Amino acid sequence: MALEDWGIKPVVPISDEQFALWQGLIESRTGMTFTQTRRPFLEISLSTRMREITIEDYDAYYQFVVSGARGEREWVLLVDRLAVQETSFFRHASSYALVETHLKSLLAKPQMSSINLWSAGCSTGEEPYSLALLVEDLLETMQRQDVFYGITATDISLPTLAKAKLGVYNERKLHGVPEKMREHFFTQLVNQRDWQIDAHLKARVAFAQLNLMELDKAPFGDMDVIFCQNVLIYFRRFRKRDVVSHLAARLQVGGILVLGVGEVMDWQHPLLERVDYPDTLAYRRIK
Ligand SMILES: C[S@@+](CC[C@H](N)C(=O)[O-])C[C@H]1O[C@@H](n2cnc3c(N)ncnc32)[C@H](O)[C@@H]1O
């Protein structure tokens, strides 16, 4: 029996020209590349959305997206569909171990009064909240509650940021959070399934929309830690370098930039030196 007989419409095939047009638009606006391998994902994402708003043709949808205020609103939704939001608490433990070591050395200095961290490409919030949990725990164990800390958390996708701001996660998502931290910093909701991060911790995290392709407009600087993992995977090499150079300029001298292992290759920057820490890709600003 054909798909149509079940009431299921097959995906409309995207032509090579249409694919190139969409590829170009998405890459120039977000940095995300859609190679031939990811073509089926693009095709399914676009055609699912087109079906929802009863547009049948890729060219017509393209025209809709690139024109006027309605197109801009549509773009916000589409970006959310096209971006990979996969994330988890304390993802890639060695990166967090490195941040912990770095923060311990900062907090050992009695004159240290504030710490600033930035999660760039924060998805649904697990990453910036993990950083907050780490700092809270350290301040407590090192008895440095006199130190102020703030976490800036940015992402291109507004719907994703809205979820992050809620700070509500189910049992499965809290898997990577140590039991002690869960008890200390989360409250179980009445539905018994979800947990909410405590308000005082949430208040330390400032969420904002920011496209990494527009970092020159970002009003952030003097960061002690910048965390940017699993965001640049789909960026072309020259764009990755551009983004990480911009991020490097937002560090304090002594601050560290933590990237995903293998995400940036053969890259050097005059302000930075590579941090020698197992199973990580990180750089320290030296001047
Ligand atoms: C796979 S998630 C990674 C989340 C988190 N950093 C982690 O490692 O678990 C990638 C995130 O990058 C965001 N992203 C993709 N392109 C972006 C861009 N140009 N500017 C800012 N964020 C972007 C996506 O919306 C998504 O939330």
Topology, please?
Elements: H1 16-30, H2 39-52, H3 58-66, H4 68-82, H5 93-107, E1 114-120, H6 126-141, E2 148-155, H7 158-166, E3 168-170, H8 179-185, E4 186-188, E5 194-197, H9 199-202, E6 205-209, E7 223-228, H10 237-248, E8 251-259, E9 272-274, E10 281-285
Parallel strand pairs: 1-2, 1-7, 2-6, 7-8
Antiparallel strand pairs: 3-5, 4-5, 8-10, 9-10
Helix pairs in contact: 3-4, 5-6
The chain binds S-adenosylmethionine.
S-adenosylmethionine binds next to loops.
Concise account of the structure shown:
By secondary structure, the protein is an alpha/beta fold. It has 10 helices and 10 strands.
Structural description of this entry:
With 287 residues, this protein is α/β, with parallel strands linked by helices. It has two domains: 3-82, Orthogonal Bundle (Chemotaxis Receptor Methyltransferase Cher, domain 1); 93-285, Rossmann fold (3-Layer(aba) Sandwich). It has ten helices and ten strands. A hairpin with a 5-residue loop joins strand 4 (186-188) and strand 5. Helix 3 crosses helix 4 and helix 5 (93-107) packs parallel to helix 6. The radius of gyration is 21 Å and the shape is globular. The mean pLDDT is 95. The chain binds S-adenosylmethionine (SAM). S-adenosylmethionine binds next to loops.
Provide tags for this entry:
alpha/beta, binds S-adenosylmethionine, globular, Chemotaxis Receptor Methyltransferase Cher, domain 1, three-stranded antiparallel β-sheet
